[in-house]
Design a protein that fits this description.
The chain has about 290 residues and is an alpha/beta fold. The chain has a single domain (about 1-195, about 245-290), classed as Rossmann fold (3-Layer(aba) Sandwich). It contains twelve helices and nine strands. The protein has helices at about 10-20, 55-60, 75-85, 105-120, 140-150, 165-175, 195-205, 220-230, 230-240, 255-260, 265-275, 280-290; strands at about 1-5, 25-30, 45, 65, 90-95, 125-130, 150-155, 185-190, 210-215. The strands form two sheets. Strands 3-2-1-4-5-6-8 form a seven-stranded parallel beta sheet, sandwiched between helices. A two-stranded parallel sheet has the order 7-9. Helix 1 (about 10-20) packs across helix 6 and helix 8 packs across helix 9 (about 230-240). Bound molecules: NADP nicotinamide-adenine-dinucleotide phosphate (NAP). The site of NADP nicotinamide-adenine-dinucleotide phosphate (NAP) has 23 residues, from helix 1.
């Protein structure tokens, strides 16, 4: 039995699908199992890495786990590591972040470093997947593109090699089901170095629309982030890191190929598969409400 936390999210849902395709037994942890919409055959457990009382049941009889954390990452990792240690879990694949390799100190990196530390103490054989920005992050542009054909970019316009959630999931499945990945960390990227402006150009090309592109200045992004989290100091360091030209995901790595034996997917493919999110017509709204790929 393989446990997946965050199984209803972007990476976890795809990893669940691929594991079932490989004939594996999958247990999924979700705060709302009734609304999870996961394929038949997945064993659902109610709970969350944030709720330690749900984790004993989640880890019982499990041989390996894909851990995706989405709230208080450091605390959730501590809860998970403790439950894994108690259950004598054999293998953990942690969805970490390329941020842990960033030369600019910032809160997101600190949280994921703490999560990796916690997993190191779990006693399980570990693999850390450290992706750069997901292709799906550009779904943040959907509303403004639908409404007025514009992209306001919050992460600067420095080159980076964003990665597809499908490839992160495939990498996780390899690490969960094949030997040779224990004690290793992988910086996961896509196949191409692109600026945000270039991503917007590819998206516009796929949509058949010219998109207006602008980069929000650091001060504006700090205001937005601080407004969401209420933590201005963290917003300042996180935005500084995102806008830094020294991002660790600046160039494509071979990690997805090393793990899966095939090349990672280009951004254009994501744009084609998710074009309905950005479409002008009402069909976009229905695609969203029906639960699209992102
Ligand atoms: N986006 C990026 O560019 C990027 C880059 C590197 C690393 N990462 C890391 O990737 C992880 C997220 O992966 P993902 O995008 O696949 O996950 P996701 O889609 O954001 O969420 C996964 C699941 O977590 C649960 N969840 C959401 N918000 C939560 C909260 N506040 N507290 C507790 N549970 C919550 C939900 O499941 P239920 O409702 O079913 O419980 C959700 O389906 C994060 O650790 C992030 O730091 C992201």
């Amino acid at each position: 039995m393989i446990l997946i936390t965050g199984a209803t999210g972007k990476v976890g849902r795809e990893a669940t699908r691929q594991l079932l395709e490989h004939g594996r037994d999958v247990r999924a942890l979700s705060r709302a199992p009734g609304q999870a919409g996961l394929p038949e055959g997945v064993e659902m457990v109610a709970g969350s890495p944030a709720d330690p009382t749900s984790l004993d049941e989640a880890f019982a009889g499990v041989s390996a786990a894909l851990i995706v954390l989405s709230g208080d990452v450091a605390q959730e990792a501590t809860n998970v590591a403790e439950a894994a240690r108690k259950a004598g879990l054999g293998r953990i694949v942690l969805l970490s972040s390329a941020g842990v390799l960033h030369p600019v100190p910032h809160g997101i990196a600190d949280e994921h470093r703490a999560a990796e530390e916690a997993v190191l103490g779990s006693g399980a054989a570990w693999t850390f997947l450290r992706p750069g920005p997901f292709h799906a992050n550009t779904s943040w542009w959907a509303r403004a593109i639908r409404e007025n054909g514009s992209v306001r970019c919050w992460i600067g316009n420095n080159p980076g090699a964003p990665v597809d959630e499908y490839d992160i999931a495939s990498s996780a499945v390899s690490a969960l089901t094949q030997g040779g990945h224990e004690g290793r960390s992988y910086l996961l990227t896509g196949p191409q170095t692109l600026t945000s402006r270039e991503q917007a150009r590819i998206l516009g090309d796929v949509l058949g629309r010219e998109l207006e592109f602008s980069v929000a200045p650091v001060e504006e992004v700090v205001e937005v982030f601080a407004g969401i989290t209420g933590d201005r100091a963290a917003a300042v360091t996180n935005v500084a890191a995102l806008h830094s030209p020294r991002v660790p995901w600046a160039k494509p790595t071979t990690a997805v190929h090393d793990l899966t034996g095939r090349a990672p997917r280009p951004y254009r493919r994501w744009a084609v598969e998710n074009a309905a999110l950005f479409a002008l017509a009402e069909s976009a709204e229905s695609a969203l409400s029906e639960g699209s790929a992102v």
